[in-house]
Write a structure and sequence with these properties.
This protein is α/β, with parallel strands linked by helices. The protein has helices spanning 39-44, 64-67, 70-75, 86-113, 127-134, 222-239, 252-265, 280-290, 298-305, 322-328, 349-356, 375-380, 411-419, 434-441; strands at residues 2-5, 17-21, 24-28, 56-58, 81-85, 137-141, 146-150, 153-159, 167-175, 178-184, 207-211, 243-246, 275-278, 316-318, 336-339, 363-366, 385-388, 391-394, 398-401, 426-430, 448-449, 456-458. The protein binds zinc ion (ZN).
């Protein structure tokens, strides 16, 4: 067997791993590079393998750093089958259509700036490439079941508890000497969160490829983070301001809705608290979340069974139209406004920041990761003034950074997850910064590798 690494090698995005076994070439994920410099060139670069030669793609989940380059793979000749869970398929469709739309818009903007004179760069892929990609989705993965990829070669799927429909994948290969098993963790969830069931872990594997995003730290307990959110909202309402929550559309938005609903039910928040979800992408994602009631924790599954909406409550308004989004700007206090993008690099949240950042009675609550150089990072780091739409805006609102909502396992959970798998010959760490990986590596048992980009291992 041959195992090679073509993304998320000593970095956190662009997951893409290739296993050559049983005469087949199986790609696990084909993600977009979203962090660091020169991401546009890196995403447009060659894959490090021949797309035409890939037989199967196993997609672990719908985050763009795992599925975002699939349309490029298809555009460059991949004609095999993509296998994913139903929920991943639905969510990936939404994320890829949105990504293509944004890339086409960016390309048009570049073209206008170039005045048609010199060649402006074409988009990485278009909506048409996404439709071609959706045609390649074949059999549906189910938790706890295996799919035969070829005689003597099969893939089993386990709940990774990271986002709705996310999987860890176990590939089993019948060889002359016996069965060989390679486990890909995918992204692993933070077990304390309320929506999803805890991860399920295969009992045995010969080789393990595992993520290491938060391999160097412990998360704050989930309950403490929820408490912090309720207190931030209650305090802001008392001061008469708005609460702005920059929100990632996929999973985080739904999780915050669930937590707000719970706060209202437990009388921690006012019963008619006005909450605006001002993000068409997050609204569409929420609708997909409602379509997969089987995939949740027991408590959330029970809500669905009782015909109660885990993501709905009296004061919640979904805002799709931009005219309605603009109308929210007239509200000077008493509302919770959730809008994208999560890192404030674009989207409607920038308008809400323009109208609230300068108000001392308002608050901005960050519930997710904020990369270096982003507007979110500037505000979190204590900037007194930021630039919005070419104008300086003073930061007078209270800023809260709540870290416990992470969708990733922390160090302790990663160690425990790995500890549950018996018979491991070697562990390969991926999807983490190099310094973080090194810290985790010291805490894990047995031989270990930290593959470099395009590094190949005969296993
Ligand atoms: Zn992920």
């Amino acid at each position: 067997m041959k195992l090679s690494f073509h993304g998320a090698a000593r970095s956190v995005t662009g997951s893409c791993h290739l296993l050559e076994a049983g005469g087949r070439r199986i790609l696990v994920d084909c993600g977009m590079i979203q962090s660091g410099r020169d991401t546009e060139e890196l995403n447009a670069a060659a894959f490090g393998f021949e797309p035409r030669a890939i037989d199967t793609v196993l997609l672990t989940h719908a985050h763009l750093d795992h599925c975002g380059r699939l349309p490029l793979l298809v555009k460059r000749g991949f004609r095999g089958e993509i296998i994913a869970t139903d929920a991943t398929r639905d969510l990936a469709r939404l994320m890829l259509l949105d990504a293509a739309h944004l890339q086409e818009e960016d390309a048009r903007r570049r073209q206008r700036r170039a005045h048609g004179g010199r060649d402006a760069e074409a988009p990485l892929y278009t909506l048409l490439d996404v439709f071609d990609t959706l045609d390649r989705f074949g059999r549906r993965a189910e938790y706890g079941q295996a799919i035969e990829l070829a005689p003597g070669l099969r893939a089993g799927f386990f709940d990774a508890s990271h986002i709705l429909g996310s999987t860890s994948v176990l590939i089993e290969v019948k060889e002359v000497g016996g069965l060989r098993r390679v486990l890909f963790s995918g992204d692993l969830g933070n077990a304390g969160r309320p929506l999803l069931a805890p991860p399920s872990v295969p009992a045995e594997a010969d080789l393990v490829v595992m993520e290491s995003t938060y391999g160097d730290r412990r998360h704050r307990p989930y309950a403490a983070s929820v408490e912090e959110l309720y207190e931030a909202i209650a305090g802001t309402l008392q001061r008469g301001g708005n609460v702005i929550i920059p929100t990632f559309a996929l999973e985080r938005a739904q999780e915050i809705l669930f937590v707000l609903r719970q706060g209202i039910e437990q009388s921690r928040l006012p019963p008619s608290l006005p909450v605006f979800l001002d993000s068409p992408l997050a609204i569409s994602a929420t609708e997909i979340f409602r379509r997969h009631p089987r995939l949740y924790s027991a408590a959330v599954a029970q809500l669905f069974a009782d015909h109660r909406d885990p993501f709905g409550f009296a004061g919640l308004r979904f805002i799709r139209e931009s005219a309605d989004s603009i109308a929210i700007n007239r509200i000077t206090g008493g509302a919770v406004i959730m809008a994208g993008s999560g890192m404030c690099t674009g989207g409607r949240v920038r308008h809400h920041l323009r109208h609230n950042l300068w108000r001392p009675e308002a608050s901005i609550v960050f519930v997710g990761f904020a990369g270096h150089g982003t507007l979110a990072r500037q505000i979190i780091d204590g900037a007194h003034e930021v630039d919005l739409f070419g104008e300086p805006v003073a930061v007078r609102a209270r800023v809260h950074t709540i870290n416990g909502f992470s969708a990733h396992a922390d160090q302790q959970e990663l160690i425990e997850w790995r500890g549950r798998i018996a018979g491991v010959e070697k562990t390969f760490l991926v999807h983490g910064e190099e310094a973080v990986m090194s810290i985790l590596a010291e805490k894990l048992p047995g031989p270990l590798e930290m593959p470099r980009q395009d590094q190949v291992f005969i296993v």
